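Lab notes, practical 5.
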Amino acid sequence: MKQLYLDCGMGAAGDMLCAALLELHPHPQAVIDRINALGLPGVRVAAEQTQTCGVAGTHYAVTVYGAEETQDIHHHHGGAVRDIAALIDALALPEPVKTDAKAVYALLAQAESRVHGCTVENIHFHELGTLDAVTDIVTCCLLLHELAPKRITASPVCTGFGTVRCAHGVLPVPAPSTAALLEGIPVCAGEIEAELCTPTGAALLKRFVQDFGQMPAMTVSAVGYGVGSRDFGRANCVRALLGDAEDGDGIIELTCNVDDMTPEAVGFAMQTLLDAGAPEVFTEAVGMKKNRPGIRLTCLCRPEQRDRMVRLMFRHTSTIGIRETVCRRYVLRRETGTVETPYGPVRIKTSAGYGVQRSKAEYDDLAHIASENGLTLDEARSLTGLI
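Output from the prediction step:
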């Protein structure tokens, strides 16, 4: 499974993310040429070879009518959200790239509207340097579309600290809109007094990163360094690592213990979690405080489902605490076929891998044939040719 890991130990800005991903792309100049051919008003982009603390990397330079935004100071005047969506829609890009780019801008608009206390429709992106940000966002979305990782994870995000000057005056770091976008994402201030994570960088991470934490086990095939424009005396870059994950896929185990719910309520909670897409939900009998018999409810889910499943478990159970365990799961390849019997079709599920293969008839089909024709379950199964 192709996997991308973003090291955001020096924050994240749109240009740095673009530059890191460009270094992973097999044909970076073709991407540059394509962005320059889009016809964004006054925009030219270039990949400049540079270094930070002796580490070679790429700086993604975006100029608008000849001027480059060299610092993350938000002062440009831009259009409303609907104008930006129309601008993106008019670009000669694959539809998924346009969808992602508009979604990133929607995240920015929602954050700005919260900060300024107005509706999304009334937001004007004077805070974002519109064409600079559109270019960074479109480039990042295109690169991720072409690199096509199956899973994207990242480190906790270093925000920096101190203050930043913007159109409204001096604001704390992280800027309010950045802080709003980083809700639910692990962050740290770090040791550098500067704005390391920008709103555009935060919105891109929010859109694409499925989980934040340590780098997962993978065989790395390429490393990209996206270098920022400022010198902090330490490597100022986003590092992107592309590789193949180990055999097996990641699964999260969410568990809680309850001793004050009826069986009906537990059953309803289980079905709600299954209906929401949990791969597996089960219960076990446990002994709890004050010698009370209780139930341990366990929900298995994929990392990107975690937040939804946690909310559902709190909503539909009486628990006040949920435990999380990150597991590595090994699964057989699964296929479904059909065999014809004198009494109708029966679905067959075949599992294979790791040197084994096994087949099993679908219970519901066997039960239907058995009940309709006065057969036992074993007699119905024998009609399929399976033992």
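Observations recorded by the TA: The first helix runs from residue 14 to 24. Confidence is low (pLDDT under 50) at residues 70-78.
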